Amino acid sequence: MRERKLVERAVRISGMFVLLSGMGLQPCLASHSYNAASAGVVQVEQQKQKITGCVLDVTGSPLPGASVLVKGAPGRGAITDMDGNFSVEAEQGEQLEISFIGMETQVVTVSAKTRLQITLKEDSKTLDEVVVVGYGTQKKANLTGAVASVSAETLESRPITNLSQGLQGMIGNLNISADNGAPGKGYGFNVRGTTSINSSGPLVLVDGVQMDPNMINPADVESVSVLKDAASASIYGTQAAYGVVLITTKKGKDEKAKISFSSNWSVNSPTRKPEYMDSWTFANFHNLTNRNSGGGDYYDKNYMDHIYAYYTDPKHNLPVFIDPSNPNKYLYCGNTDWIDETIKDNTLMQQYTLSLNGGSGKTAYYGSIGFLDQGGTLKHYDDKYRRFNVNLNLTSDVTNWLQVRLKTVYNNTYRDAPYGSNNSDETAQINSAFYGADLRPMMPVYHPDGNFSGQGSWTNMVATQSISGERKNKENDLWLTGGLKITPLKDWTINVDYTYNMYILSKKQHGKEILEHTANPDIVTVFPHTTPSRVKFTTDDNYYQTFNAYTDYSKSLGKHNIKLLLGYNYETKSYRWFNAERENLISNDLAGLGQAYGEKYNGSGQHSWATMGYFARINYNYDERYLLELNGRYDGSSKFPKDKRFVFFPSVSAAWRISSEAFFEPAKKIVDELKIRASYGSLGNQSVGGDYPYIATMGTNGEMGYLVDGKKIASVSPGGIVSPYLTWETVRQIDLGLDWALLNSRLYGTFDWYMRKTLDMVTNGTPLPAVLGTGAPQANTADLKTTGWELSMGWRDRVNKDFSYDVSFVLSDYQAEITKFNNPQNLLSTHYVGKKWGEIWGLVTEGLFQSAEEVSAHADQSEIYGGGWYPGDVKYKDLNGDGKINKGKNTLDDPGDQKIIGNSEPRYSYGIKGGLQWRDFDFDVFFQGIGKKDVVLGGNQFWGFGNEWHVPFKHALDSWTEDNRNAYFPRSTYDNVTGNRETQTRYLQNAAYLRLKSITLGYSLPKALLAKWKIDHVRFYVSGQNLLTFDHLFDIYDPETVSLSTYPLTKSVSFGLNITL
């Protein structure tokens, strides 16, 4: 909080260019001096007097642009001039607050002295920073667990549309993945790597309640804390086994009301835009592939002549001609770039936030309204995402012992995308363009008569974007929180709060039939993937409630400091959904259930869960030197049988501030802070498979195929076997850490090593005899161990009164290993003891065969592919020397010629951030990346032709031929697809990357200029996101997603404005 006030005031007083000599101030003359250690209180008569003085740094240099405010007197204050001078009117006994960016704020009480000299010391943020932890806050210097935090200033330094985007790469081992770039799509969270076979994530809390972080307005966020180790997270119990992300939103302050407005406009474009072959290149490559597959040319000479004619002279030739064997059918000979036809070069995004913050006496308030409008990349449909946020925080001290807190949050989102087809969603509009399915370059967008092209299985993506219908989603998310803070005695507080959430998701899907036109205008059919037309409505209702009651007491006895916390937590969530669908609309443009006459479909369901827990925490420290924390939670979950619902989870952590020892005093000139930490804790994971994993559920079937009493009846299928012993997954974690700050806290950092064991993971149990008629029940039969480390370091410095800079980086790594799993045969197709998570088994490639003689002389590869091997095919290494290339029994004991060739888990994740401020200019740059990651790519988008309907990308041209023996890819063929495309060393891809995530340049108008209009702060900035990427993949792949089956990520250039009144 203190850091935030410093930065807020510093931004307001960035008037480095302003001369205030017109105020008649004199050069700084030493009279009565103050510093951080002095400033007494002298009582004198109450009358206003003119106080003059100057503000200096520790070197004696004046500080122009420092803020001098009379506390509790809005509007009374001054800004120091170029010589550090100021003049204000104040009464004796009033207090002056002097602040400057990067300096410790001082408070001086006005006495009879009318001439002051104030010396500001450089701020040592590391020691005094307050961090949000479970059910409270702690000084960062007193933390015993692994906790990392990000402040609002860091998030506000660059434009972001959602909070996850702003956190990516900022905290070591907070792994945030962007697997989809569609408008409004969020990011995935992970703390400290692989968690469980059941893929559980961290608990994300917004002001103490579970909330989707992608729904909130990032401008409302005050801070983010990540509780990484079990000791820090254990107070949250069953849902916190794999870390906790605590998001704290802004609240009111007891100060003059401030109105802030921020806006951001950006131009976005895909980070990667794949490039297909042109029609002439494609046709020749297709012919080559067909010949390599044992056939002749796929396109005969007449067809090739038509393709060439249009390719070389499109103005005087048509992109179609009549099929000689079928006068009702067109053959296509155009030259269409389907990526260019379906994907925009640029899209627009705009974001606005208006907030009011202030307080008077006993009441403080914060309110904001936010709006985001994000356009999509589809060229022939206005796909979009809109988000509207309202946030209101109110705190009132009713008495000196009772505080009332009220909070209201409303989030509304709207997503609009094309329908596409009956077997796809909106993402398929991108997939089809990127996959190249049925999008041969010879097919034009339109026939000569103006109708959309496409015949048979030739899919026209412009048509499906334009006239296939729509998919619209609306979300309404309301949060109501009320709380009380009672202070019966000094150092004793009682907190009670209740939150109610109602979330409603409404979906509408309207699929239209698209007419398929031929060369004969009298023959019109329907695109097969768009029939029948249909409409579907879905409603999801979620209701969430949570109640917290906790009390804490703190006491200091000499050098002994103790704080106790006791509390109770209850949460419940219920889901309810309903859908109704009907086929065959009487008109494409009517989208109601009553306007259809075909088959009807409907469904519904509901389920719920609840948790209840009692928790306690004891914090003790001696002289803030030896620190100890004990946590315990007795937690229960409705997801387990009654006799196994409640478990106690303890944790302990301790720290030693070596820098506070007397023997360390000689080193204090260099080392400001040195602390070692250790923690151990145990937690339970309840996310083990649905809300009722211990109950056998039965399914309803349709009408049976025979009659009972002359009627067809429905049937119910019996439920499978469930284990009566199913219980929690247990997570135990040990953490060792080191924190340091040197050179007046200019050089700072932290290092953590951890080991986490996930025990009793829920997997399929021991197979049962087939005569039983059902599969094995799930059981707690597997264990996993994850080890890792994280390092964060930074340097910040102020060179002089005009220039300051900072640089920081985070680096982390982890590996996970299966330590127990029911796989007696050690099959490689599933998990086995000793397996590193992400292991890639494959064959070792020696190269490509160059001749038939080389094929004959090599080890027999017929077990990999039995259809024959030829020059240009892949040559595998015979690792076991048996003269055969095979996979053996595909077990750990007999892998054949396979070996571990890579690992798909990301290693050495890092982020590098730098910033500087010179007078009224600020600059910020942030890089993020992964040091090591292996991926296996497949499909026609990587390999090229897999069958005659595939459309390869340009890189597939580098395939083996007699004239291109040093090619990267094997010969292009439909035949030996499986043999050449085995997982292997030659085509294992390096997915490591370095990306310029953001770069921002800002300028703040001088304070003196704004004062004439009573404006506190104005800042303009220009920013770029994802502008540069350095990686080893083919240009068609984005290294963050490594897939063409998702909506592409975007890069952007943004322009923004921030105003505070």
UniProtKB/TrEMBL annotation:
InterPro entries: Beta-barrel_TonB (IPR000531), Beta-barrel_TonB_sf (IPR036942), CarboxyPept-like_regulatory (IPR008969), Plug_dom (IPR012910), Plug_dom_sf (IPR037066), TonB-dep_OMP_SusC/RagA (IPR023996), TonB-dep_OMP_SusC/RagA_CS (IPR023997), TonB-dep_rcpt-like (IPR039426). The keyword Transmembrane applies. One of its GO terms (cellular component) is cell outer membrane. Keywords: Cell outer membrane, Membrane, Receptor, TonB box, Transmembrane, Transmembrane beta strand, Transport. It is a multi-pass membrane protein. Residues 471-1027 form the TonB-dependent receptor-like beta-barrel domain. Residues 140-244 form the TonB-dependent receptor plug domain. It is found in: Cell outer membrane. Belongs to the TonB-dependent receptor family. NCBIfam families: OMP_RagA_SusC, SusC_RagA_signa. This is TonB-dependent receptor. It comes from Bacteroides fragilis.
